[in-house]
Specification:
By secondary structure, the protein is an alpha+beta fold. The chain contains 20 helices and 26 strands. It has a seven-stranded mixed sheet, sandwiched between helices. Helix 7 crosses helix 19. The N and C termini lie close together (10 Å). The N terminus is likely disordered.
Length: 660
């Protein structure tokens, strides 16, 4: 403080301008960095698409014309590849993905990514289709069976057999390109959250300028100094002091200091929080949408319930390996058949067998020989299990797969065993149908196991009968139930959105405590984003209702901010969740998920613990309340310092604040 109204000598304050420029530049750097992270997420998505494709040259005599409507391969009159084509004999050439055109035929090897969108034209080997891992788009753990004419999506992974596909979309017309476009639009169109400091400053700054002008006028009019120049100098210094003291530095520091502490506490607890705006948005969240696979569930297939249907007097009980119980025969034979399988369902069966019998699942030490293993894509596997005296014949043929395959039915095969309409009371009911229906109600995939005693060479002579049904399940994570219960106690409405079918989704929802009305099943990535948009509108529609007065809307908005913010958070882990994560108010990504999801999200759970969802929301509420308290202290400082700067107390205490 400076005593008296003397002119004095003031030091230059050039460092103030330098510091201001530094802070502004640093803010611009952070903004550019955030945009770079968005671009990184989109780049990772685009890198999923192969850059080279293998184009097959199909001779005209390999093409057949579709003669009837309703063919899945195309419309009547279209020319398509004959289903009996030996695709490995076709001449091929490697081409750049940019040179692939609609109508081209592409060859895709097992384990390779499908280059672009198309339909399955033919496949090598037995069966009428193949399996494709669509986890990158749907997030579901089990490969999808594809029949001739079914749609194939670019960047998904072909599983078991060589396939020939006909291209139906390229470039920006593919599903992957559409997902990239939706993420870009969602992140680019998201309105920036206006901090409370901005709202206060918009009113505070004009008031300060008015106070500065009033201070100048009053000092000129009321200063007892006789010299006019001295009056002007004192009035100018006092007016400048008002502006300097009222500079919203305290208001500006109120938010970043609390955010810095909040993000530091979050990092200590395994939360990567991307900025203060995220904390403010998370404070207003009252709806959380969970992805199912890999988020609520583990994302790994394991053996669930099983039904052993072998009769007490069955011939198969003769000559079993020592140490094998009658109640485990179906699991043992299924493990033998699936030993060489790469299918997740097969691996789950084999892992269950190893958990019971150790590494020697087939009981080779007892003389068991497994041979003639055949994989029929879209149907199942078949093999021959031989052992001296087994079943009275010394060998048994085993089939593991869907209903039509294991019963050797010649009707049209349904490629998705989990969706086949079963009716155990009908005349066409098969053994095991009732058990499969029970498994579906529990959210498990039913797999049939059938046998044919003897090693009959002719398929027509074989009499297949079902001896067991195995249930494969994606189990619920250990933390899912307690996390959802905690969110309910916080007053948060919990939803679940999944690409899986409705029966499985309802079973999981019942287990973790989510209301069935809050379950959306069978949705694609765009559908998840649309759900987020609907929920946002549903919880905010009253704010923009033109029939209400401005005062009523303000009251509703204030109550919503104090109690529930109307914000929607999405918790996911896969590429299929990236669009919803970007469109939500707060995107929360599981740390063990994909990089694309982590880049598109606002909060990353580094420890991949669902409990951290509750921690993140609680932390945001604590930090936001601290920001409000900081604003109170900042305003108190300004209200106390402004009278001193204006010289209001100078006549009594002979003190006032200089501008520098």
């Amino acid at each position: 403080c400076e005593a008296g109204p003397g002119t004095g000598h003031l030091k230059p304050t050039f460092e103030t301008g330098a510091m201001l420029l530094m802070f502004v530049t640093f803010g611009k750097f952070l903004e550019a960095y955030a945009k770079g992270k968005t671009a990184s997420a989109l780049q990772k998505l685009m890198e999923l698409q192969p850059v080279i494709a293998t184009r097959a040259i199909v001779p005209p005599d390999y093409l057949v014309q579709i003669e009837e409507d309703g063919d899945a391969r195309g419309k009547k009159g279209d020319y398509v590849v004959s289903a009996n084509t030996h695709i490995n004999s076709l001449q091929t050439e490697d081409v750049d993905i940019k040179d692939v055109k609609i109508g081209d035929y592409l060859l895709v090897l097992p384990g390779a990514r499908i280059p672009t969108d198309g339909v399955l034209a033919a496949n090598e080997g037995q069966g009428k289709g193949s399996y494709v891992d669509e986890a990158a788009l749907s997030g579901e753990p089990f490969p999808v069976a594809k029949a001739l004419g079914d749609t194939l999506y670019g960047s998904t992974i072909n599983q078991l057999s060589v396939i020939l596909m006909r291209v139906t979309a390229t470039g920006s017309g593919t599903v992957l390109a559409r997902i990239v476009r939706l993420i870009d639009e969602a992140q680019g169109n998201r309105a920036p959250i206006q901090a409370q400091a901005d709202r206060i400053a918009s009113v505070f700054a004009p008031i300060v300028l008015m106070l500065s002008a009033i201070t100048f006028i009053l000092w000129v009019a009321l200063d007892p100094e006789e010299e006019f120049k001295q009056k002007i100098y004192t009035a100018i210094m006092s007016a400048i002091s008002v502006i300097v003291v009222a500079c919203p530095c305290a208001l500006g520091l109120a938010t970043p200091t609390a955010v810095m502490v909040g993000t530091g506490v979050g990092a200590t607890n395994g939360l990567l929080i991307k900025g203060g705006a995220v904390l403010e948005a998370a404070h207003g969240v009252d709806v959380v949408v969970f992805d199912k696979t890999g988020t609520i569930t583990t994302g790994r297939a394991v053996l669930g319930s099983r039904y052993e249907l072998l009769q007490e007097d069955d011939d198969l009980a003769v000559g079993l390996p020592s140490g094998l119980r009658r109640s485990d025969v179906a699991l043992w034979l299924a493990s033998c058949a699936e030993l060489q399988s790469e299918h997740p369902l097969g691996r789950a069966i084999v892992n269950a067998g190893r958990g019971i019998w150790g590494g020697d699942v087939s009981f080779a030490k007892d003389g068991v020989v497994v041979s003639d293993c055949v994989v029929v894509p879209g149907s199942g596997v078949e093999c021959c299990v031989a052992k001296e005296g087994l079943g009275g014949y010394g060998s048994v043929r085993v089939r593991v797969g869907n209903r039509q395959f294991v019963n050797d039915l010649h009707e049209e095969t349904n490629n998705n065993n989990t969706k086949t309409e079963l009716s155990p009371s009908s005349s066409e009911a098969c053994i095991g149908d009732k058990e499969v229906l029970k498994l579906r109600e529990r959210g498990q995939v039913g797999v049939y196991v059938s046998i044919c005693l003897g090693n009959k060479s002719s398929a027509d002579e074989r009499d297949w009968r079902v001896i067991g049904v195995l249930g494969i399940v994606d189990p619920v994570g250990l933390e899912a139930i307690s996390t959802i219960a905690a969110l309910h106690k916080m007053g948060v409405d919990v939803w679940m959105c999944t690409g899986d079918h409705e029966t499985t989704a309802f079973a999981v929802a019942d287990e973790v405590g989510i209301n069935r009305r809050n379950v959306c099943a069978g949705v694609k990535p765009e559908g998840k984003a649309d759900l987020v948009t609907r929920l946002q509108k549903q919880y905010r529609e009253n704010e923009n209702d033109p029939s209400t007065t401005r005062s009523v809307r303000r009251k509703r908005l204030r109550l919503r901010r104090e109690q529930k913010g109307g914000g929607v958070a999405v918790v996911g882990d896969g590429i299929n969740d990236a669009v919803a994560l970007a469109r939500s108010d707060v995107g929360i990504a599981i740390g063990a998920g994909t990089e694309v999801a982590a880049e598109a999200a606002d909060i990353v759970l580094v420890k991949s613990s669902l409990h951290d969802v509750v921690v993140a929301l609680h932390l945001s509420r604590v930090v936001f309340n601290r920001i409000r308290l900081n604003f109170v202290w900042a305003m108190g400082y300004n209200l106390f310092a402004l009278p001193f700067a204006a010289g209001a107390f100078y006549p009594w205490v002979d003190l006032r604040l200089p501008p520098a």
